[in-house]
């Protein structure tokens, strides 16, 4: 088994990444901590990136033994359509940290991005209070070979994040899990929000793929969702090739360069 993780962690800042709206979205009534900037309304320009978010991302990258990207850093527009993304694109930086390591697992990159809103398809509602909250995404190499290794890595990562003082806590962490077995294709499991959930999802998916391969059935490259109430994964969509997000540099945000100072 090979397993890699993409972990999204909210940064503990008072205001959002590109505006001055407060970040206490969990306590506020729906759609009250919003403005034209975090809703990406026509003509609304983003503020310069939140300095506390940039400093927090760099601190966490260094604690993960990453080298800081010495090149010019800038934000890109990552295009996709979903109800929680009013602009049709998400602002995400090129990597600020590269080639780190934690618990024997290589860290490919750390970058900064903005959180989308909260969409509840069963209710048909979207709450944009979360839209624009600063995130970091930590991407690992596929170095984990068992659910236990993934669980141990996540436990150690949470210790690092808590010690950094820059993250909002485990309850705001979300992970996408990529798993493949020899002879099968890679499967991605989206939006797991606990260590227990990641462990259970990997256990179930490993057994599911083993049973398919034993019967000579192809393991399809797809995206699956984890139903924590039932402890199973279910198919969301086939993923024959990598999504084309049509990345372009954001013309509304200036490039940045990080120095030792």
Structure overview:
With 261 residues, this protein is of the alpha+beta class. The protein has one domain. It contains 3 helices and 14 strands. Helix 2 packs antiparallel against helix 3 (195-214). The longest helix has 20 residues, at 195-214. The chain is globular, with a radius of gyration of 19 Å.
Helical residue percent?
10-25%
- What is the N-to-C order of secondary-structure elements (H for helix, E for strand)? EHEEEEEEEEHEEHEEE
> What is the averaged pLDDT score?
91
Instruction: Provide the domain count.
Output: 1
- Specify the structural class: alpha+beta
* Major sheet summary line: 9 strands, mixed
Structural Rg:
19 Å
N- and C-termini, Cα separation: 42 Å
* Unreliable segments of 5+ consecutive residues: none
The percentage of residues in β strands lies in 25-35%
Shape call: globular
Question: How many DSSP-defined strands?
Answer: 14
Describe the strand arrangement of the main beta sheet, using strand numbers. Answer: 2-5-6-9-1-10-11-12-13
How many alpha or pi helices? Answer: 3
What are the defining features of this structure?
three-stranded antiparallel beta sheet, alpha+beta, single chain, 3 helices, 261 residues
């Amino acid at each position: 088994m090979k397993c890699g993780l993409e972990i999204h962690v909210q940064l503990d800042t008072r205001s959002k990444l590109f505006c001055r709206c407060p970040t206490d979205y969990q306590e506020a009534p729906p759609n009250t901590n919003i403005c034209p900037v975090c809703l990406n309304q026509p003509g609304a320009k983003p503020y310069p990136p939140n300095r506390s978010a940039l400093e927090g991302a760099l601190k966490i990258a260094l604690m993960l033994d990453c080298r800081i990207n010495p090149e010019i850093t800038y934000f890109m527009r990552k295009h996709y359509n979903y109800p929680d993304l009013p602009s049709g694109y998400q602002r995400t930086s090129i990597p600020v940290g590269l080639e780190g390591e934690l618990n024997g697992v290589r860290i490919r990159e750390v970058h900064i991005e903005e959180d989308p809103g909260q969409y509840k398809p069963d209710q048909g509602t979207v709450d944009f209070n979360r839209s624009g909250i600063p995130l970091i995404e930590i991407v690992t190499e596929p170095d984990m070979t068992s659910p236990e290794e993934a669980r141990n890595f996540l436990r150690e990562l949470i210790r690092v994040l808590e010690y950094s003082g820059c993250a909002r806590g485990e309850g705001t962490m979300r992970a996408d899990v990529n798993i493949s077995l020899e002879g099968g294709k890679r499967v991605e499991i989206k939006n797991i929000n606990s260590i227990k959930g990641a462990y259970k999802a990997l256990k179930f998916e490993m057994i599911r793929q083993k049973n398919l391969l034993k019967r000579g059935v192809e393991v399809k490259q797809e995206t699956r969702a984890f139903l924590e109430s039932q402890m199973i994964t279910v198919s969301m969509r086939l993923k024959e090739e990598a999504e084309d997000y049509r990345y372009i540099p954001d013309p509304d945000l200036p490039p940045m360069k990080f120095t030792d100072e």
